[in-house]
Amino acid sequence: MKKNKIVEPKAKKIEKVLKMHEHERIDEFYWLNERDNPEVIEYLEEENNYRDSYMKDYKGLENELFEEIKSRIKEDDSSVPYLENGYYYYTRYEKGKQYPIYCRKKDNLENAEEILIDANKMSEGHEYFRIGGIDISPDNKIMAYSVDTVSRRLYTIHFKNLETGITSRQSISNTSGGVSWANDNKTVFYNQKNVNTLRTEKVIRYVLGSGNNEEVFFESDDEFNLYSYKTKSGKYIIISSGKTISDEIRFINADRPNQEFKIFQKRIDGLEYSVDHLDDKWYIRTNINNSQNFKLMVCDENKTSSENWKDFIKHRENVLLENIEVFNEFFVVTERENGQRRFNVISKKDGKSHYIDFEEDAFSAYSSVNAEMNSVKFRYGYSSMTTPNSTIEYDLVSRKKTILKESEVLGGDFDKKNYESKLIWADARDGKKVAISMVYRKDMYEPGKNPLLLYGYGSYGSTNSAGFSSVRLSLLDRGFVYAIAHIRGSQYLGREWYDDGKMFKKKNTFYDFIDSGKFLIKEGYSNDEKLFAMGGSAGGLLMGAVVNMEPKLFRGIVAGVPFVDVITTMLDEDIPLTTFEYDEWGNPNNKDSYDYMLSYSPYDQVEEKEYPAIFITTGYHDSQVQYFEPAKYVPKLREYSTSDNPILLKMNLIGGQITHYRNIQKFNDNEFFFDYLKKDIKEKRKMGHITTLV
After folding, report:
1. Is the distance from CB of 306 to CB of 288 less than 8 angstroms?
2. What is the pLDDT of residues 233-278, one digit of tens each?
3. Which of 118, 403, 559, 651 is the least buried, fewest Cβ under 10 Å from its Cβ?
4. pTM
């Protein structure tokens, strides 16, 4: 019995004995895995109704917050156009409409607009709708685009003749969403997914109009995932097989799409590499020869095996080499040192280099769309916790910066001068220093008195940058301090920081987060009655782990799509991400991994404790973290909690947790907690399901 004597839903119990390594686990809520069972749907609806009833008294505040957040969004916004192959491409929104309109203009921005896709019209009749990839043929006449209407990230590819406006009746289902065009303007390569595991496992060659789909590569190792792309130079089609600690690349000349793919360098366990092409050379980002933080190497176009690789940028112990952007006359290398990202500009002509400077300590910077090889303009995105998102163009010759666009924050009362951002370092229990980025409103900050929301992720080497969020302003303007703990499992301090927070060192991630919370209280940024925490997906696992370890540290927890049933999920090879992630979490078929994972698995470690208030969100169709993990977790938490604090579940039964924030009418209930960012495919291909909260 909780607030207002509202009765909690009671999930029935059916004992399920799970045996492994002579160890037994009892899962009384295992039956909730039965996706098509009407009783499961009924229970999930009961949970939604309970959450709504419990929060009835706060409905006014919810509506106020939603309208407030909505008011900051520029409804008729548009992206900064970028040039590719003679056309300027951009997206725009119209007032009162939910979805983007994809457009282009030929030669210059003064010419007539050509609408490629109006997603508002295309979405009619669908409760969920999402455009995947859009890829234009080299002659600019045919557009391949993909659509997901379920939210399982299984995209159907369609082809539209841009001269006639006619979309072909032939479509391709169960794909990852994009295509790579050969230079003949009729052959494409696409990636096909396994409909059960959602592993991208095949690359298919398709000739438009033929109706024939020819398999050119099947990845037989279920620990590997595929993606394919065309090099920026336009000369090669690439197939990349990868898992957490190994890569293997295949390639063909885009002028000869019927060729067999050649192996660039055979896979070796522990060898990671990615490639870019320029002139007659390949540039290889790799960890070869114990280069933990990666280095850049180069080889001749026709001699690609590793014995032919030569150093271009040597390995540095204190600098993580993250990415490279190739131009005809320059290289722009994305690096990270002491937690800070930077861009290293290297002249191809003389090898001289310089860095693009950033003034703030806590910020987010990333390479934007740079499609043209012959350009001397490098575009990047920049924001900080006080500075809205900006698109900046940097002249690689003159070194002049031009702000092409700074996102507007509507509502009339935002002034970046009202907020303060800082970077501090917390003491971890093993002597390490954990960076914390934070922001607060100056006139509302009182040492030791403010509520504080601490966000964390700490998996897959994904580093949460200290960027801007207009959603977050609703917290800051009510006196909250917002902080991001850059814990182990990320690559904030280089690849070692990641390696020290996965597999048999995974608990370092949880300890870092707990120690960061205690440090913030000790230093007076909050107090032990006002510390809250939030994380999503693997960050939801973080929430589940820390609340088991230190249930009284946090007053409340928000866990989005939480990965909490670690053992059961990682033993099921038929669901998404399992085999692909053995090198991240471990393989519980091995007893040592099983025992270690069991020791922190949030679902398995629930016991009688005074759990804080916990709010959990998920999606019935979420492709990465299956709905039944949080669905089982909630009734088990309630059963064992010795406190009267609420434990609430919000289940999106229509679509997954990536529903666009502009869908005002249908999804306003707490959808504002989630702001999903697009991730560069090459950088984030191994990351799985990534969320950024507030």
Report:
1. yes
2. 999 999 999 998 999 999 999 999 999 999 999 999 999 999 999 9
3. 403
4. 0.90
- Per-residue buried b or exposed e for 434-471, using 16+ beta carbons within 10 Å of the residue's own CB: bbbbbbbbeebeeeeebbbbbbbbbbbbbbbbbbbbbb
| Residue 502 domain flag | yes
What does the alpha-carbon distance between residue 424 and residue 437 come to, in Å, rounded to a whole number?
7
Q: Which residues of the chain have pLDDT under 70?
A: 1-5, 576-577, 655-694
Please tell me the predicted confidence (pLDDT) of residue 150. Answer: 86
Rounded Cα distance between 554 and 643, Å, is 13
User: Which residues partner with 423 through β-bridges?
Assistant: 437
Q: Which residues contact 291 (CB under 8 A, 6 or more apart)?
A: 315
Residue 33, CA distances (Å) to 605, 627, 637, 646 in order: 20, 8, 17, 24
Coil, strand or helix: which one is 363? strand
Q: Within a 13 Å sphere around the CA of 236, how many CA atoms are in the beta-carbon half?
A: 23
Token reading at 178: 């994009």
pLDDT of residue 5: 67
Q: What is the pLDDT of residue 413?
A: 84
Q: Is residue 616 part of a domain?
A: no
Task: For residue 35, give the DSSP letter.
Answer: T
Q: Distance (Å, rounded) from C-alpha 426 to C-alpha 431?
A: 10
Tokens found for residue 322: 């993250």
| 3-state secondary structure at position 514 | helix
**In angstroms, rounded to a whole number, what is the distance separating the alpha carbons of residues 324 and 446?**
43
CA distance 622 to 645: 27
What pLDDT sits at residue 580? 78
Residues sharing a CB contact under 8 Å with residue 38, sequence separation 6 or more, in sequence order = none
* Last residue within a domain, chosen from 194, 225, 252: 252
Residues that are catalytic: 537, 622, 660
- What residues make up the domain containing 507? 420-529
CA 476 – CA 154 distance, rounded (Å): 38
Cα angle for residues 346, 347, 348 (degrees, 5° grid): 115
**Residues 29, 572: Cα–Cα separation, whole Å:** 16
Coil, strand or helix at 507: helix
Distance CA 486, CA 437 (A): 8
The pLDDT of residue 411 is 82
From the list 241, 242, 243, the residue with the least C-alpha distance to 251 is: 241
- Distances, alpha carbon 163 to alpha carbons 131, 141, 179, 350, in Å: 21, 6, 20, 45
Tell me, what amino acid is at 505? Answer: K
* Domain limit, last residue, from 505, 529, 553: 529
Whole-number CA gyration radius for the chain: 25
Gap between the terminal Cα atoms of the chain: 31
Query: Nearest-CA neighbor of 99 among 70, 72, 128?
Result: 128
514 in a structural domain: yes
The count of domains in the chain is 2
Q: What is the CATH number of the domain that holds 218?
A: 2.130.10.120
**pLDDT tens digits, one per residue of 441-455:** 999 999 999 999 999
Would you say residue 135 lies in a domain? yes
What is the reported pLDDT for 688?
Answer: 32
CATH number of the domain residue 428 falls in: 3.40.50.1820
